[in-house]
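User: Predict the structure for this protein chain, please.
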Amino acid sequence: MNKLNKDELGFNRVKELVANHATTPEAKKAIIAMQPKTSINAVTQLLNETAEMLGILRQGKHIPFVSSDSLKPILQKVNKGLILSVDELEKVADFIRVNRLLKRFLSKQGTPILNSYAEEIGILDNLEEAIYQKIEHGQVSNNADKDLAKLRIQVKKLNHDIKDSLQHFLTGKKYQIALQDKLVVEKAGHFTLPVKASYRNLFPGQIIDVSNHGKTVYIEPNKAAKLIEQKGKFQSQITAIEFQILGMLTAEVFENLPTIKQNMQIIIAIDVILARAKYSLIVAGVRPDLNAENRLILNCMRHPLLTNPIPLSVKIGQPTRGLIITGPNAGGKTITIKTIALSVLMAELGLFLPAKRCDIPICDHVFSLIGDQQDIDNSLSTFSGEMVKIAQIVKQAQKYSLIVLDELGSGTDPNEGSALAVAVLQELQLRGCLVIATTHYSTIKDFSVKSPAFMTASMDFDLEKLQPTYRLIMNQAGESRALWIAKRSGMSEPVLASAKKILETGEFPLKESSVTFKKEIDRKDTKKLKLHKGDIVFVGNLNKEAIFYQKAKTANKIIVFVDRDFLEVPIKRVKLRRKAQDLYPAGYNLDLLFVKDWQQYKLNKDLDRGSKKAWKKFNK
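Assistant: Here is the predicted structure, written as structure tokens:
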């Protein structure tokens, strides 16, 4: 699949579904990374592999298999010169055993290709036998070394003696009063008895630990200590022998590393084939026929990612090189072209297809243009993004390329978009490409009808139920059913009736609206509020009355006197309540209305008239 696609088709999702059937993680990764083959011989080989494995699965036979997941880190450990544990060696032996069983199984199935893989599996009977002989039940076997068996017998006897020694203290009447609990407690590898601190001298032995509150001491009796010491010496000898045996087996694994690694690669390859066969079986797939003539035939092909999809049947072949699909929105056009493209990609991956019959062209590239191509990061609109991508497709498309285009030329002026779309389609078919496109444009529909290189098809629509059936009807130009979509979306009947009339007559509705509006108030003609010093006004934002003093230097604001203070307020929030001329007699000193401090006012007046008393007070 070409890098231009960005998985618009859902092909990566199909590969994930196939990978889910693989046993080994390496096979899962290989399937996800796998690219479609572009030669008919290579695809045929893949399909032959799938067919042979599918034949085995359909017989219900169990294929011996083991995951190599746990083996890879083990082999890395061997490469570093580290000694393998008992468990790790058993996993190596299990892998070798399954390899042997798988080789024998495949050689008897009459499957030449799978048998050729099996023949490459190296049999390591000697290593398998050596490991199983020397390791049993999760430990080094007693049969691995004669001294090992003797030492384990000695340790077993010592364990019994140690138990009897300790039991003597637990059951003897002499020690009952001194014991905190009648049990043996292991402390730092020592077998101890919990003794009351006040009786510590009653027990011949070594204090190993003391409880937090100091009331209990944990004593290892001398007799038991000697037995335990002797046991430790035997145990050290056992460990040395076991380590030597594990080292010898690890060395044998190291010598056979090339064969084991080769077997792992073969197992992964067989696992990939098995995953393809399991997926093909689950989807009830049929083996597709292959051709190199750009001939595409699908009979009841089901989209692999949908639940209960409507089967698709389509046939494109010489001399036609393209298919133009029309029909309503939400009618299944996009799913149709995705299904066609996926059928080619899946076949080139070696998968059987969920269909009754398929004849698939081998394509060197599969290009797609589906969905919104807007690229905000690069400041590209939907149409610009589409043109950038289609220009790249036209540049790279070759004879055996499959191109699927969804709503080519949309997102711009319909006339120019249609012209561009027709020119692109013509250029692609002249190159020999197989082209599948969807459209609503009448110009493109007309082109496909008149051009011998293109076929037309439409998505079926049930006129009685007024809903799409999602079935593709070949050799038929469909309608977009825009009115049906609008009606289903809740569009009003008057609008739908008007649209229908425009389609039928070609005449535009030119009647003007009779809706009227109140004449907008001309703010320039509005009588301005005229205020005079001393007028009583109501200030809305203060919610109280005030006395008008004068206009403010700030536009559309005035200064009022309220609560013995001057405030600047917007004139639009002010209403005239009472005029000064109606409140005060002629010649009244209005400045008296704006006095903040009457005592200071009186003092200033007395100073002005030269009052000695006032000056005396002022000089204080």
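The chain has a mean pLDDT of 85.
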